[in-house]
Design a protein that fits this description.
The structure holds two protein chains of two kinds. Chain A is α+β, with helices and mostly antiparallel strands. Chain A folds into three domains: 5-69, no CATH class; 88-195 and 365-413, 3-Layer(aba) Sandwich (D-Maltodextrin-Binding Protein, domain 2), CATH 3.40.190.10; 203-349 and 442-474, Periplasmic binding protein-like II (D-Maltodextrin-Binding Protein, domain 2, 3-Layer(aba) Sandwich). In chain A, 40% of the residues lie in helices and 13% in strands. Chain A contains 18 helices and 14 strands. Chain A has helices spanning 5-21, 100-113, 126-138, 152-159, 170-174, 206-212, 220-232, 245-248, 251-257, 263-274, 283-297, 310-318, 332-338, 379-392, 395-405, 419-424, 443-457, 462-474, and strands at residues 55-59, 65-69, 88-94, 117-123, 145-148, 185-186, 189-190, 193-198, 203-205, 324-325, 346-348, 363-373, 408-409, 432-434. Chain B folds into two domains: 16-53, no CATH class; 70-306, MetI-like (MetI-like fold, Orthogonal Bundle), CATH 1.10.3720.10. Chain B has 13 helices and no strands. Chain B has helices at 3-11, 19-53, 70-76, 79-109, 115-129, 132-143, 149-156, 173-197, 202-210, 215-243, 246-252, 264-274, 278-306. In chain B, helix 5 crosses helix 8 (173-197). Chain B is flat. Classes of the chains: A alpha+beta, B mainly alpha. The interface between A and B is large, with 38 and 33 residues.
Chain lengths: 477, 307
């Protein structure tokens, strides 16, 4: 990452001042290029970046918050280089057609480093991949490297003994950010490596917020006020796309994140609904649903919200008619394609649905595109897949992938040079929770409850929408 | 053949086939084999397998467990299934009525082989050659409630009360998709009708004219009765097409909002590939096959009594 000399000097000066006055900042450890240091080490867990040399704000033995060398991976050791692959050919199965060109380049480089190796990509669109990808890959001995979505699809592949165990691989221990690996774990084993780190939080138009002098809402009542102010100023406050469940459902992550006092409680509540033990008319879910109605009544959503398509929602945001796109970081690439001027003009913010600014969580992250090695593939094919995976998990390769695909990754020592990734990297220092939406493993149930919430935004009363939704859920469990 | 000859034939034993004829029979039989094999492999086997899966709780991954007729009894109490079946009947009815009548109307007006008729026939037939997903995308854009050209137009001419949330309202969506389906396939059925109407002997119209029949009377007494066999084909085809409108529905709304535009085929797909309840989806598809067969048989019976 290129950093101007003055900025770099300022940063070092700031770091030096910190070291002298506040903490035991290990300057000798140094910062990796492009890392940012918070003004003060006051937020426990706040990190300067995702490098093996990064610093994290943590309590020392005396209980004081100090900048300390980060331990992002499972081990303190430096990341390892890629493994060597034996001769042979494999298929790499995934759903990201938009990444084909980047993977082609990465594969070509890997094949040069490993003569006699041939890797071909087998790409389906995400809907098809979700539906049939796993079934097709598991019976194909060449499909040695495959990917899954977090949640139901990973769970299905894990329970049907499709993965080889990656727990003891050095790249698992040393090359990836440990806290982002949960999505690939099953019964204590690391079966898959989530490659992408997404942030399912609203994206905002930096220029509009600056021009209008608005501050980013930090609690629910501020979101209500924002909607009223933005609407009065002639904007559509949120380009919410109720006509496309996959994107309309993103804000349920934020809605859910602070509904329980512990993660375990939230997980058990979700499981209860998912398995039909509890209906969605239950008190906690109803309380959350009522907030959808509050947002609706405050004019947060576009007119005719349930009919707004993904294309229309994106257009509202890209053209500046809506200052907020309530989807996630993954939408930024599409927005820049629609309107190149939006590049560098997008920030990301958490959506706190409580009145407590110190709520447990302030934002959402999701780790997906889970790489796995097919247990049913041949031994040589498995070795090639493992070697290619280790190559993808090296800093330089992941840096290339991240900046090309405009996606954050779970790999250590990645420099985010893309302006949109840099602008949204700030969210990484917030108190993030793994997107709870994907804890619903029964897709039929999840669709039904999301339909109920969409109906509320569309004008249906909370009671009717939830009762109707509960009736549908009964047929899905 | 005379009665005597028949009697004589009856008493006689069948003449043994000569060697060449028997060899010809074998060759002919062999020639049907590739088609029969393809049919058995891609139609018969999956159908029988589907029947087998419909009696299991197979999730697409794990060992299937035999559950008897549980899936079929579950279907009877499944409110979503009932709703979707109702949607499908409404959708088929709307498409059947409008597509059949419009295609007949267009065929009558464009029956002459004039230059303008040929041009208009081509124009009306054109949607048929577009891929269904493209049609869905175009109409999704047209129907967009806030930025879509349809509502923008209606609002601009003061007809804002007609500017609906076309694909986002539970009451309007199914009808909006039915309209698209009619737009998509009317041209195709028009061509079938034109072919049928061109077979009607001109003398019948000449005789009707001599008798002083008006255009309407000519239609009622000549065109319509003579077009009934074609109508039977058009209606059967339209019915099957409406039950199979998966691509249009799936691409336009995915069956939403709240299953209000879902039809049986989209539900079967989602049950199998979204919810991974393959056993239940198999039983739904068995129902679909029987339902289409019953409707088609009913249509044939009704129309057969008419001509």
């Amino acid at each position: 990452m290129k950093v101007s000399m003055s900025a770099k000097a300022f940063r070092l000066l700031l770091a030096g001042a910190f070291a002298a006055s506040v903490t035991v900042l290990p300057i000798s450890g140094g910062f990796a290029a492009g890392e940012t240091l918070g003004a003060k080490c006051t937020n426990e867990g706040e990190s300067t970046g995702t490098f093996s040399t990064s610093l994290v704000c943590a309590k020392n033995s005396a209980g004081r918050l100090v900048w300390t060398k980060v331990k992002l991976s499972a081990s303190n050791l430096k990341p390892v280089n890629a493994l060597r692959a034996p001769r042979g050919s494999i298929e790499f199965w995934h759903w990201r057609a938009e990444d084909k060109a980047w993977f082609d380049k990465i594969i070509a480089d890997f094949e040069t480093l490993n003569p006699g190796v041939k890797i071909s990509q087998v790409i389906s669109n995400s809907v098809d991949y979700q539906a049939t990808g796993i079934q097709k890959a598991r019976t194909n001995k060449k499909a040695a490297l495959f990917t899954t979505f977090r949640g139901a699809q990973f769970n299905t592949a894990a329970t049907t003994d499709f993965y080889t165990d990656l727990t003891n691989e050095q790249f698992t221990k040393r090359n990836v950010i440990k806290s982002m690996m949960g999505a690939g774990q099953y019964q204590g084993k690391q079966l898959g490596i989530p490659y992408q780190s997404l942030f399912n939080n609203p994206i905002y138009n930096i220029e509009i917020f600056k021009k209008e002098g608005w501050k980013l809402p930090k609690k629910f009542s501020e979101w209500i006020s924002y909607c009223k102010t933005a609407k009065a100023a002639g904007y559509t406050p949120m380009a919410w796309m109720g006509g496309f469940r996959a994107q309309a459902g993103q804000i349920i992550n934020s809605a859910l994140m602070n509904t329980a006092s512990t993660d375990a409680l939230l997980a058990s509540r979700i499981t209860a609904i998912d398995t039909g033990k509890e209906p969605i008319t239950t008190a906690w879910f109803k309380e959350m649903a009522e907030k959808y109605a509050e947002l609706r009544d405050a004019g947060c959503f576009p007119a005719n919200p349930t009919g707004v398509t993904e294309a229309a929602g994106n257009a509202l945001f890209a053209t500046g008619k809506a200052p907020i796109l309530p989807t996630g970081s993954f939408s930024m690439g599409g927005i820049v394609t629609l309107e190149p001027k939006m590049s560098g003009n997008m920030g990301i913010t958490g959506m706190n649905w409580t009145e407590d600014v110190n709520a447990r969580y302030t934002g959402i992250t999701n780790n997906t595109f889970i790489l796995g090695v097919n247990k049913n593939a041949g031994k040589t094919e498995q070795q090639i897949a493992r070697a290619f995976m280790s190559y993808l998990l090296t800093g330089p390769v992941a840096t290339y992938y991240a900046n090309s695909s405009k996606q954050h990754v779970t790999v250590l020592d990645v420099s985010y040079t893309d302006v949109n990734l840099r602008n949204t990297s700030s969210i990484m220092s917030e108190r993030l929770v793994l997107a709870p939406r994907f804890q619903f493993l029964n897709i039929g149930v999840r669709d039904a409850l999301e339909d109920a919430l969409i109906a509320i935004v569309g004008g249906t009363s909370v009671d009717k929408a939830l009762t109707d939704g509960a009736a549908v859920i009964k047929t899905k469990v | 053949m005379s009665r005597t000859e028949t009697g004589a034939r009856k008493g006689a034993s069948p003449r043994p086939k000569n060697k060449l004829a028997r060899s010809n029979d074998r060759v002919l039989l062999l020639m049907t084999l590739p088609a029969a094999l393809i049919y058995a492999l891609f139609y018969l086997y999956p159908t029988i397998n589907n029947l087998r899966y419909s009696l299991t709780n197979w999730d697409g991954f794990q060992e299937a467990k035999f559950v008897g007729v549980e899936n079929f009894s579950k279907m009877a109490g499944d409110s979503v299934f009932t709703k979707v079946l109702g949607n499908n009947i409404e959708f088929t009815f709307l498409v059947l009525i409008f597509q059949t009548s419009l295609s007949l109307l267009f065929a009558i007006f464009l029956l002459q082989n004039s230059r303008i008729s040929t041009f208009l026939r081509t124009l009306y037939f054109f949607p048929t050659i577009i891929s269904s997903v493209s049609v869905a995308m175009v109409w999704q854009f047209l129907y967009e409630p806030n930025l879509g050209p349809l509502n923008v137009f209606l609002n601009s001419v003061g007809l804002d009360f007609l500017a609906l949330n076309w694909l986002g309202s539970e009451t309007a969506t199914l009808r909006a998709i039915a309209f698209t389906q009619v737009w998509f396939h009317t041209g195709q059925m028009m061509v079938v009708y034109i072919a049928g109407l061109q077979q009607i002997p001109a003398e019948l119209y000449e005789a009707a004219e001599v008798d002083g029949a008006s255009r309407w009377q000519q239609f009622k007494s000549v065109t319509w009765p003579m077009a009934l066999p074609t109508t039977a084909v058009v209606m059967a085809y339209t019915t099957i097409q409406s039950f199979r409108a998966f691509d249009l529905v799936f691409a336009m709304t995915g069956g939403g909002p709240n299953n209000s535009s879902s039809i049986l085929v989209t539900m079967i797909y989602l049950t199998a590939f979204n919810e991974f309840r393959f056993g239940y989806a198999a039983s739904q598809s068995i129902f679909l096959i029987i339902f289409i067969l019953a409707i088609t048989a009913l249509q044939r019976r009704i129309l057969r009594t008419k001509y």
